[in-house]
Amino acid sequence: MTSSISLQHNQTQPVLAMHQVSKLYGEGSGRVAALDEVSVAIPRGGFTAIMGPSGSGKSTFMNVAAGLDDATSGEVVLAGQPLSKLGDEGRTVLRREQVGFVFQAFNLVPTLSALENILLPFDLAGRKVTAEQRQWIDQLVHTLGLAERIDHRPSELSGGQQQRVAIARALASQPAIIFADEPTGNLDSRSSREVLTLLRTASREYGQTIAMVSHDPVAASYADRILVIADGRIVGDHGPLTPQQISDLLIGFEIGAPA
Amino acid sequence: MNARNLTLGSLRELGTVGLVAGLCGAYAATLIMAASMLGALDDGSGSGADAMLTVVASVFIGIALYVGTVVIINAVDTVISGRLRHIALLRLLGSSARSLRRSVMRSTVTVGAVGAAAGLLAGTALADVVRIVLVSRGTMPKGDYPLVSPQLAVAFVLIAASAMVAGWLGSRVVLGVSPATALAGTTAYRRAPLRKSVLRAVLAVLFLGGGFAVLGLGAMVGESSEMGFFIAFLGSVASATGLLIGARFVIPRVVSMFSRLLGGDPSSRIARRNAVLDPLRTTRSTMGLVIGVTLVTTFASGMRALSDSVSSWDLDPEQAAMARQVLSVASTVLICIIVISSIIAAVGFVSTMSLTVLQRHREIGLLRALGFTRSQVRTMITKESVALSASAVLFGIALGLVYGTLGAQSLVGVMTTGLVWGLPLPALIVIALAGLVLVLVSSRRPARRAVAVTPVEALRIEA
Ligand SMILES: Nc1ncnc2c1ncn2[C@@H]1O[C@H](COP(=O)(O)OP(=O)(O)OP(=O)(O)O)[C@@H](O)[C@H]1O
Ligand SMILES: [Mg+2]
Question: Looking at the domain assignment, is residue A132 inside a domain?
Fold first, then answer.
């Protein structure tokens, strides 16, 4: 398959590269720059937290980077493919093969069981699950405490369980990059810790690239890089920090940010 | 924003209710006026024929009303199911389920009454215009025809009442909404648990089994006696009643069985699951089609079997041609009268398909994000429509062939050796084509809507 060749070919290149990407909403005086000339690269294997005040452009960043939404200007290169050169179909296939998602609110296909949801990326790409992948999925299901619920429909799962199924789905197919919008938003602090540890392990031991939007300094402290967005611009790019350091960092921006 | 808007959305979403009530009204008016004109024609020759006509018209109107009610129940149910969170919010803020349902009922009565009035008016006007044209052309004798009929008022009340009942039954979903749903982060679909009706199951089995046994008996008796048709008629009525009572057990199984043929890829699998997600909705959205197709096929098949057996009789060519002509005119008229129920059912089916796509906005956005291409989304919607409508059409055809053939056998078995199968090929081809058109029409708009869904707007938190 061409995509896996290009994947190996670009082993040293960043998984995600954005060059002067802007995303504008509205017209005339009501115009909002949700992203304002953002340039950033996310290397393979990194666990990046994206933080910033509400309305600063984090979700927009994720949508544009993942090819869910068009940039107004600039270029996004995802898994070696410039998105502006791909049509809707090409981007859909790219997402299917290279991107894993955890959304904030609505994650699972209601008519599919938890396991079927986890296996959906394989089904869509027409890939067979190898014995090795099967083992990885079993391990994920176990670590995420989903073993007993695996045949249940989403409507029979709690919000936190649904979120964990989504996390298992994102990790299962070992995509080039996982985008997660507040993946611990619905979890109590203990399962939240377990999920974050799992994400960090996936990144450190299996080289899984992860970009995670979060408001929570504790969650962000699991990442090895912290990007801070304010008013559509990247205003901070830090290495790993403690929750306390992150809180201090954010307070500066919350005060500075327009209401 | 008042409670009704939050429960049902705009009145536009009740368009189906108005349309169906209108169709029922127009249909009822046409039949009533036709019956009253025919009654005026054979003035004086005794009121027996008059009463007979009224009974026949009432039966057909009754069938259309039944189908219309089922369609309206489904439309209301589908609209409300798509707004469970709004309803939960209302419940959280203190509305009782009862008062919500009552407001739904008021809306459907209002819309239903307006539709019925418009339809009755249109049907009456149409009948009057046709009559005036026919009389002026001399096709119909001059006479003292009534402009309107008092029975129209009865029809109006019945249609409005049906809309009311449908509003009440269709809003049953509200009962399953606990205020807590508003607080949960998910929009998971949960139906109020249906009372497990053992009584319903038992009655269905009794009527179905008994009815078909009596129908078979009638066909057998028909071989040697004139009594056969009467027995077969009783059997048909009983088994049809059993089917109506047990539809919610039978139809989802038929759909589920048939939809296995669609394939095993993700878009087929999701289409299949959605088609049978809610047995009651599956039943309601296909039942009207089953009824319509069954009736049409029954008449077509019965007439076919009759005309085939006429051919085997010892008649001189002139008589045989005459008999066949009478049969073909009779079957054409009957089928035209009965086809309206299928049309009402089809309208309901199209609107249900549209509404379910609206309701599944988020799910479709998610599928797009996860890698469903536009054409896969389109395929998914089309296959759901195929699963439902093809099952309904095939099931209806099968039933119709059985009823038509056995009915004809019971009627003329005495005069014909062996069983004459009524296989009305032209009619079956027309039905199959109509089914195909229905799939295309019912899936086009929803599919276009579904394809236009973008993941970003569908997955926004307050989508
Ligand atoms: N469809 C849209 N039309 C107009 N403006 C939009 C649209 N989507 C987002 N915006 C604006 O773009 C800016 C960035 O929005 P975005 O959703 O990316 O913020 P965010 O950082 O994810 O906020 P939060 O933390 O609250 O989720 C906001 O000012 C928002 O109002
Ligand atoms: Mg956001």
Answer: yes
